[in-house]
User: What shape does this take?
Amino acid sequence: MSIAEAPAFDAMLAVPPAESLKRRSLEGAAVMTASQIVRIVLQLGSQIVLARLLYAADFGLLAMVMPMVSFIQIFADIGFAQGIVQRAELTRARVSALFWLNLALSLIVALLVAASGPIAVWIYHEPRVLPVMLVFACIVPIGALQVLPNALLTRQMRFRALGLTEVATSLTSITATIVLALHGWGVWSLVYGQLAGAVVSTAINWLACRWLPSAPRRFSGLLEDVKFGSGLLGSNLAVFLIQSGDNMIVGITTGTEALGLYDRSYRLVAQPLGQLVAPIGRVAVPLLARLVGRPEVYARTYLDLFRALALLTMPLMLVCIFNADAVITLLFGPRWAAAAPVFGWVCVGGLTSAVYGSIAWLFISQARTHEMMRMNLVVMVISFVSFFIGSRWGVAGVAAGGAIGFVLIATPLNFRAVTRVGPIARRDIAFAAAPIAIQALIAGLLLVMQRKLGWTGPTQLLAALGVAYLTFAVSALLVPGQRKIVGHLVDIARMARGVALSASAKSGRNTGVDDLPDPEQQR
Assistant: This one.
């Protein structure tokens, strides 16, 4: 019996009339896009407000705890969610078995987080991390409860529900944090804000999914899912060490104040970029997975997304690199001026961060998770070496070392590995990246010239944004592949809608790609 045929899923997968399906998919895509814009605004606004309510040491204390919590938490999700999204067929028994296994792992992880509190105190020589670790031990199983419902919503491409959930979660977490910070709760406002967000996110995911697992029992196919997830587990572990190694090094060598400066600078870049790439990935992974049998369409779809990500994010990163001091002063205030050089170097890494994140779409959609794990382990080593070398020059040196290693070594190595086999060839990436690199160079030179005009504050930043995006827009008109990108993205949206309609109409049967709209025929 397929998962869609089980009674608990009838409501979720009921097939409305064709016009209603079309309307819902279009509304869902619009809501998902709008939700990310809202989340970016909320996150940026909260960072600005909290920077004026809390101290760098408060953020630094939380940044000491998070690497250890995140490291242990990785073992609670060994790729089950991605497996649910990627598989063509799924049964109710398999999903229920994965749910109970995931819950059991999360409870073990919660105990490990609590037990690791004294270790964190010893590593950082900071006794205040112990009670914070104990609260996060409670957050871990709450967050794990939403993994499977969220994966089912993603599989069915119900992006409207996912988008609304994310906005509600962000709004709850941010509101709770700011209210507590206003009442003088310090670092605890950050901790309890995350707890509130986890509770709300889990509750809404379950209500939207309308699914209940069956009673726990032995399932013979579970080993196959664990094997699939093991590659993602190793990859997630490596990604964690890449993303958290800098925090650990800064925290151990410099203390909470410098770590707070580094953490705020990193999040000011990473959160907006992550919120931009993550929803695109939610659409891209299931879409690309269903296009593997059509290599030409697969390659065209991915390369258009690659170009769109670069053209959307690189101009902003260039503006922040050349105006780091103005951005920090405007957003965080004069007392955060020491964060400006750190922020500038983090933005250097942000130049390729969005397109680097898209490499995972290729590995997962082609079921090459073990290759992804190996490459992430390589990048982990590169990152740690870069961080250690840079630490000789303080917190800004750590940011500089990490950014240079990421852009010049890690990103090219990963693209080289993912294009070794599969629908995407190395020359495809080279042809797509070359004009973008030239555009970035031209925009950078113009931004240097624009700085000499002597403008300051918001006027300087608005002028810089205009220069950067106008440079990319004008030069894109001269590149044939980029000239057609808007039309191609519309075609991709139609294909994504086709996957959503097919997944619903087939009610859990094997979803192929024969029914996907062909962009060339539509033209």
Q: What stands out?
A: Confidence is low (pLDDT under 50) at residues 1-22, 506-523. The chain is about 80% helix and 0% strand.
